[in-house]
Amino acid sequence: MDTQSILVFALFAAAAVYLGRMLYANVKPKKGNACGSNCKCGMDFSQVSEKK
Question: Rounded to whole angstroms, how far apart are CA atoms 39 and 41?
Answer without folding.
Answer: 6
